[in-house]
Amino acid sequence: MSLSDVPTIGVEEEFLLIDPVSRLPQPVGERVVAGAKHAIGELVSGEFAQCQLEVKTPPCSTAARLRAELMRLRTAVDTAAAAEGVRICASGTVVLDDGLPPAVGSHPRYRAGLAQYRAMMDDFALSALHVHVHLPDRDIAVLVCNHLRPWLPLLVALSANSPFYHAKDTGYASWRAVIRSRFPCLGPPPYAESLTHSEEIAKMIAASEAMLDAATPFWDVRLNPRLPTLEVRAMDVTTDVDDAVAVAVLIRALVTTATTLAIAGDPGPRISAEVLRSAYWRAARDGWCGNGVDAITGHILPTAAQLENLVAHVGAALKSAGDTTVVDALLDRLTARGTGAEMQRASAQRRGTLTDVVDDLMATTARR
Questions:
Q1: How many domains does the chain have?
Q2: H-type helices in 149-186, by residue range?
Q3: pLDDT tops 90 at residue 230
Q4: Does residue 107 fall inside a structural domain?
């Protein structure tokens, strides 16, 4: 594969909007989005909770370009946030809050979700990292989803950045993943034998009202309904922009490798949904510093060993894209200081209070 054949990638990051004095989330998303649009146009939008917003990069060919775009977008929205008296904060869950349900955005989809899921949405101010990889062949993309399913728990562990919730340590690396697990339409996609099979499953789930719209499933890897991309949605938003870039290129390599296998006729491993759910839970609890379930073999392995297996699996694709050093640097950072979950806990231990955790999150998110 030549560099010109490497698919483009795009990233969506969701941020909380935090008052730097109280350290509580503020429902000013619509105003901040309006201010940021002067600088970045439609690359910023609102989110379910009014205390959030989302940025989305244009398609990028290289890790360097992706990093530059993410920095540009973070700078633009933090500048707009400052004009409203708040700061952006990259954490999968709200660290401190007033205990009240978040104000909901005005988009009809958000209102429909509130009507359908009711009290389940009372604490749904969750911030994610979504990665898009260009893959216009939807028949092949469904089979690629099958290949990605076993690796999704590892992506949860690598991005874990939500240990605190309602001013307490949950004991989990990704509490966001736990909150999401109660929804019947979130999590890994079902194994599908074809595009038609996948669409039939989505229609049946939507008919049960467990999913809002069959054309827009919220599975952790899905065919994007509007873009010619495969979208991976399992990850917490990462505070360190370099972690976001590294996870994105690692996912691109995984999609590239899976695409080659699917084109060759390999439909992907049939992983038990129950085993996969167990692997998700273990990844959410123990994160980078613990052990996890290898969903293919069922073996319990250190998360670091699982990452080594993934890098070996996609090594050729990483090399072709020029991304090997980016992923090597991620491994070095994880070895030295862990994921966002470890960094949040280190802030709490080093500085003594959860207000200091929020301060560190805001400072790192907006670092220029």
A1: 1
A2: 152-159, 175-181
A3: yes
A4: yes
Helix extents (H) in 182-240: 195-207
Q: Which domain holds residue 83?
A: 9-354
**CA max distance for the chain:** 57
Distances (CA, A) of 259 to 60, 230, 312: 19, 11, 16
Locate 340 and state its tokens: 């966002």
How far, in Å, CA of 280 to CA of 285, rounded? Answer: 9
pLDDT of residue 113: 84
Query: Could you tell me the CATH number of the domain that includes residue 339?
Result: 3.30.590.20
Instruction: Compute the distance between CA of residue 90 and CA of residue 334 in angstroms, rounded to an integer.
Output: 18
Contact 182, 120 (CB under 8 A): yes
Structure tokens at 229: 């991309």
Is the confidence at residue 215, as pLDDT, over 70?
Answer: yes
Residue 186 above 60 pLDDT?
yes
Would residue 199 count as lying in a domain? Answer: yes
Q: Evaluate if pTM is beyond 0.85.
A: yes
Distance CA 240, CA 109 (A): 30
H or E segment to which residue 129 belongs? strand 128-134
Whether residue 167 is contained in a domain is answered as: yes
Report the distance separating Cα 95 and Cα 46, nearest Å. Answer: 20
Provide the pLDDT confidence category of residue 130 given band limits of 50, 70 and 90: very high
Identity of the residue numbered 150: P
Give the whole-angstrom CA distance, residue 304 versus residue 334.
9
Q: Which amino acid is at 141?
A: A
pLDDT surpassing 70 at residue 4: no
Residue 3 has pLDDT above 70, yes or no: no
* Cα gap 309→315, rounded to integer Å: 10
> What gap in Å lies between CA 220 and CA 235, rounded to an integer?
9
- At 313-367, the pLDDT tens digits run 999 999 999 999 999 999 999 999 999 999 999 999 987 899 999 999 999 999 8
Across 197-270, the runs of DSSP E, i.e. the strands, are 221-223, 229-236
Evaluate whether residue 368 is within a structural domain.
no
